[in-house]
Design brief:
Number of strands of chain A: 13
Largest sheet of chain A: 11 strands, mixed
Structural class of chain A: alpha/beta
Largest sheet of chain B: none
Number of strands of chain B: 0
Low-confidence stretches of chain A: none
Strand content of chain B: under 5%
Order of helices and strands of chain B: HH
Oligomer: heterodimer
Distance between the termini of chain B: 64 Å
Largest interface: A-B, 45 and 32 residues
Helix content of chain A: 25-40%
Strand content of chain A: 5-15%
Number of helices of chain A: 15
C-alpha cells in the first residue's frame, strides 16, 4: 500500500479506467487500497454499514485476468464502488439503517448491483443511511442504526439524508462513486451537503428491484460521484428495463453528450429570490457566482416560477400513506418502537391512520401538478435553484432548528419547493457543487423534463469544465 | 444596559430556546399526538385545493 498513489482516491471514473487499461494499477490493488480505506475511515463518518473487501478482492482477481486478455467491459470495469444499505445483496445483511432489520438477509441481489457486477465494478461495502430512508419523518441526524452521518468537511455537521453514507464515502475518497436513493431529497441533499455530484434519475428509468420500498410512486435509485460525467457513466450502467420492477419505464440511457442540444437553444428558468433573500446570506456569493457561470455557458437564463401547489402536504400524504402501508407489519407488531428517532416512530404510527381520501386527494392534485409542469417545460428546458438554502446543519441540533435571530422567510417561495415538486413529477435532477460557505459545500440543482438526463448532464459537465469545486476535497488523513 | 427592541426579542428568543433545551423530552404519547396533528394540518392544506371531479389520481409518470 506504501506506493499507492493517494491521488487515485480522488480520481474520476475515466481516470481510474485509463490507469487500469494502461496497467498502471491493477483492480486488485484498487480493491485492496479502497477496501482498507473504507474500513479504516468509514466509521469515522458513521458511513460504513457492511465492509465487503474480501469479496471485492476475489472479484478483482477475475477483473485483472480479463484486462490481461483484453476483455474490456466498459468504463466501470474494475472501478470500486459502494451502495446504500437499502439495496440487497444475496446472503449479506441488509439493515435499511434500522434496528428491527439489523439481521435481515435476502436471497437475491438488487438489479442495479447485478448490472454493475456484470460490467466488472467492484462492490466494496454497503453504506449507512437514515433508518427506513426517513419514511416516518425524522428530526435528528442520529436517526440511524449507525449513528448520525458525519460530514467529511466538518464532523460536527450532518452529512445529509437519507443517503448519508453514500455522500460521505464519496466526499472522503472512500469510493469513487456510490449508489443512493431518493424519494424526496435523499440524493440531492447529502450530495449538496458533502460537496459531491448527485443525480436523481427520472422515475422508472432505474430498476428498484431489491431496494427497500418507501413509496412505490416516488422511489428512485441514482448515483453520487465526483463529476456529472461519472454520474452519466453509472446511470448508463444501471438504467434500463426490468420486468421485476413494475415501475420500470422500459427505457435505457446512453450517455451521448456530443448530441446534446446547442446550449444557445436552451432556456434555463430560475427565481431571483432564491439567490438573494431565500438562501442563507453566507451562501449567496457562491450561488451568485454559479448563476453567472451557468449564464456564461451560452444558455438563455430567464425568470421562472413554480406552479402553486401544496407540495409539502402532497409529499407528506403520499410518502406517509404508501410508507405506512409498506411498514404496516413493523408498526402493528410494535417493533417500530426500536427505531432510533422518536419522531419517526410517532410519524409511522400516525400515518397508518391516514384516511384513504387524503392519499387519493394528494394523488389527484399530483395529476394537476404534472399537467402544469408540462406547461412550464414548454417555456423552459431546465429549472435552476440552490440544491439547499443553507449549509449542512450541526448534528447536535434538531434538523428543523432555526436560530432565534433568523430573518423572516420571504413571502415569495421562489423554487424552495423544487425538491418535493421534482420528486412528485418524477423529474430528473442533478446536484452540482458550486462553492463553499464557512468551509462547507454549497450546491445548485438542475431539474429537467422526464428522461432529459443527457441535457442536464451536458450542462453539468460544461459547468464543471469551468469550475473546480467538484475537484476539491476535505482533509481526511 | 439599554437594549433595542430587536435585542430584547433576540434575547427572549434565546431564552425560549434555552427553556426548550432544558425541558424534559416529549413523551411518546405527546409525539404521537403531534404527528396526528401534522396529518390533519396536511389534510387541511389538501382540502383547500379545488379538484375537478374528472381529475384522476396520478399513477403514470411518463412524458
Amino acid at each position: 500500500m506504501k506506493d499507492f498513489d493517494q491521488q487515485l482516491f480522488w480520481a474520476t471514473i475515466p481516470e481510474l479506467n485509463a490507469k487500469l487499461k494502461a496497467r498502471e494499477v491493477s483492480a486488485v490493488e484498487l480493491a485492496r487500497a479502497f477496501g482498507d480505506r473504507i474500513e479504516r475511515l468509514g466509521p469515522r463518518y458513521n458511513a460504513l454499514a457492511l465492509p465487503m473487501t474480501e469479496i471485492a478482492i476475489r472479484r478483482a482477481k477475475d477483473v485483472d485476468a480479463e484486462f490481461k486478455r483484453e476483455r474490456l467491459r466498459g468504463p466501470l470495469h474494475g472501478v470500486p464502488f459502494a451502495a446504500k444499505d437499502l439495496l440487497s445483496v444475496a446472503g449479506q445483511i441488509t439493515t435499511w439503517g434500522a434496528k428491527p432489520y439489523a439481521a435481515q438477509v435476502f436471497d437475491y441481489t438488487a438489479t442495479v448491483l447485478t448490472k454493475l457486477e456484470k460490467l466488472g465494478s467492484l462492490l466494496m461495502a454497503k453504506l449507512a443511511m437514515v433508518e427506513l430512508a426517513g419514511g416516518g419523518g425524522y428530526n435528528t441526524a442520529a436517526a440511524s442504526l449507525f449513528g448520525p452521518g458525519l460530514n467529511p468537511w466538518d464532523r460536527t455537521r450532518w452529512s445529509g439524508g437519507s443517503s448519508s453514507g453514500s455522500a460521505a464515502a464519496v466526499a472522503a475518497g472512500l469510493v469513487p462513486f456510490a449508489l443512493g436513493s431518493e424519494t424526496s431529497g435523499s440524493i440531492l441533499t447529502p450530495a449538496a451537503f458533502c460537496g459531491v455530484t448527485g443525480l436523481r434519475p427520472t422515475y422508472g428509468l432505474v430498476s428498484r428491484h431489491g431496494a427497500m420500498a418507501l413509496s412505490w410512486t416516488m422511489d428512485k435509485i441514482g448515483p453520487l460521484a465526483r463529476t456529472a460525467e461519472d454520474c452519466a457513466l453509472v446511470l448508463q450502467a444501471i438504467a434500463g428495463k426490468d420486468p421485476l420492477d413494475l415501475s420500470s419505464s422500459g427505457k435505457s440511457f446512453y450517455y451521448i453528450p456530443q448530441y446534446a442540444r446547442k446550449f444557445s437553444d436552451l432556456k434555463v428558468g430560475f427565481a431571483p429570490i432564491d439567490f438573494s433573500d431565500r438562501a442563507d446570506a453566507p451562501l449567496r456569493p457562491a450561488l451568485a457566482q454559479a448563476l453567472e457561470t451557468v449564464k456564461s455557458l451560452g444558455v438563455q437564463v430567464v425568470e421562472a416560477k413554480l406552479p402553486d401547489f401544496p407540495y409539502g402536504a402532497m409529499t407528506g400524504a403520499i410518502i406517509g400513506a404508501e410508507g405506512a402501508s409498506i411498514f404496516e407489519p413493523l408498526i402493528t407488531s410494535g417493533q417500530v418502537d426500536q427505531l432510533a428517532d422518536p419522531d419517526q416512530i410517532a410519524g409511522l404510527k400516525a400515518r397508518l391512520e391516514m384516511p384513504a381520501k387524503d392519499y387519493l386527494k394528494a394523488m389527484r392534485i399530483r395529476s394537476m401538478m404534472q399537467h402544469e409542469f408540462r406547461k412550464l417545460f414548454a417555456d423552459v428546458d431546465i429549472l435552476l435553484a440552490p440544491a439547499r438554502y443553507s449549509v449542512a446543519p450541526l448534528v447536535s441540533q434538531p434538523l428543523d432548528y432555526k436560530p432565534p435571530d433568523a430573518p423572516k422567510e420571504p413571502d415569495d417561495p421562489g423554487m424552495s419547493s423544487l425538491i418535493p415538486a421534482g420528486n412528485l413529477g418524477g423529474l430528473p435532477a442533478l446536484s452540482l457543487p458550486c462553492g463553499f460557505a464557512g468551509g462547507l459545500p454549497v450546491a445548485i440543482q438542475l431539474v429537467g423534463n422526464p428522461f432529459s438526463e443527457n441535457m442536464l448532464l451536458a450542462i453539468g459537465k460544461a459547468f464543471q469544465d469551468r469550475t473546480d469545486f467538484h475537484r476539491q476535497h476535505p482533509k481526511v488523513d | 444596559m439599554k437594549l433595542s427592541r430587536r435585542g430584547v426579542l433576540a434575547l427572549a428568543g434565546a431564552g425560549m430556546a434555552a427553556v426548550k433545551a432544558q425541558s424534559p423530552p416529549a413523551s411518546p404519547a405527546d409525539r404521537l399526538a403531534t404527528a396526528r396533528e401534522n396529518n390533519c394540518k396536511g389534510a387541511d392544506k389538501l382540502a383547500q385545493f379545488a379538484i375537478p371531479m374528472s381529475t384522476e389520481p396520478s399513477f403514470v409518470f411518463r412524458p
